[in-house]
Specification:
Length: about 350
């Protein structure tokens, strides 16, 4: 895609997270399949190398294949129903938008939001990645049902105006082509049957201002009992496993292909989206390192910068102490007397 005013190539930026809940193992399997296709180790059926390269020519993709490593370890150790991280916090309730609100059916085991927004290292890392990467599309991948959700999770409605229409058009295309019209479409809060507070997708849309912010639910077995968490959230036979990975890998590559065209950069409603388009030269010359303030995120960018400065200062102090120790050790080994060069 080119910038109409300059003719330069522009980048379309996609940020994806998988494995946010420990028990949803199939999501990280999908991340690995997408990475394998991107590295040309595998290919999608009906997609050749030339078509793949054409789709990805101006797309930059960041994938977090397993956000909740410690929660995943607990599941692999036999706690198949665990969705939280190693500290017992639900990472999809630990973000700052409407954080901490509890519905009447609140389950502390399932939805513990933590002691404060971003109290967990996992959400802190994801926030920093989102701010620095500043994507056009965010997709948070889960399992437990088949659905394509857009904001909002914490209230029973979708955003107003053109952005909502653009998101819905893309989701309807994915549902028709890849989800075989089985997927539920709409806001998470209005479709799933309960409101969720402090979620990643609501933060990405409201704070990071990602024009298209989604939560995908890629698999669910509604015949499984509540105690059979593995079957409820993950396919248990090879045929279904292969189908899920093929269908949803293809869906993501449809996003890579259609996403840049779905956002209307000429409309007034998409002015904020236009600011996200950068040239390839600008990107590789340090776009991620020298971000200017956007969307009122001054304090969060400043916070990240101050943390880096503090880290460098600690390293400087540590290196100074080590050099002093080495110098003193060298003097003690030589046993030589130090004589001042200036007469006393």
């Amino acid at each position: 895609m080119t910038n109409p005013s300059s003719g330069s190539f522009l980048l379309f930026i996609v940020f994806q997270s998988f494995g946010q809940h420990g028990r949803e193992l199939i999501t990280s399997e999908l991340a690995l399949r997408i990475l394998s296709i991107l590295s040309e180790e595998q290919f999608l059926p009906k997609m050749d190398r030339a078509s793949l390269n054409g789709t990805l020519e101006n797309v930059v993709i960041k994938i977090v294949p397993m956000e909740n490593l410690n929660g995943r370890k607990l599941v692999e150790e036999g706690n198949l129903c665990e969705r939280r991280n190693g500290r017992g916090v639900d990472l999809n309730r630990n973000w700052s938008v409407d954080w901490g609100k509890k519905e009447k059916d609140y389950d502390p085991y399932e939805e513990n939001p933590g002691i404060a927004p971003f109290s967990e290292p996992e959400t802190q890392i994801m926030r920093k990645l989102a701010i620095s990467f500043d994507p056009h599309i965010w997709v948070n991948v889960h399992s437990g049902m088949e659905a394509l959700f857009m904001p909002y999770d914490h209230k029973n409605r979708t955003p107003d105006g053109l952005p909502s229409q653009q998101m819905r058009l893309l989701l309807e295309e994915l549902n028709n082509v890849h989800c075989h019209k089985r997927c539920m479409i709409g806001s998470g809060g209005g479709s799933v049957g309960y409101l969720a507070h402090g979620t990643a997708t609501d933060y990405m849309y409201d704070v990071v201002r990602v024009p298209m912010s989604f939560t995908f639910e890629i698999y669910g077995d509604n015949t499984a009992t509540l105690k059979d968490c593995f079957k409820m959230f993950n396919p248990v036979d090879h045929t279904t496993f292969k189908r899920v990975l093929n269908d949803w890998s293809a869906a993501f590559f449809t996003i890579f292909k259609l996403g840049p065209h779905q956002i209307d950069v000429h409309s007034k409603a998409a002015v904020s989206s236009m600011d996200k388009w950068v040239s390839i030269d600008e990107y590789f010359d340090g776009y991620l390192m020298g971000r200017r303030n956007r969307y009122g995120k001054k304090m969060e960018v400043l916070e990240v910068g101050m943390q880096e400065i503090r880290t460098y200062f600690r390293l400087f102090l540590l290196s100074s102490v080590l050099l002093l120790f080495m110098f003193c050790s060298r003097i003690s080994k030589t046993g030589r007397q130090i004589v001042s060069a200036i007469p006393i």
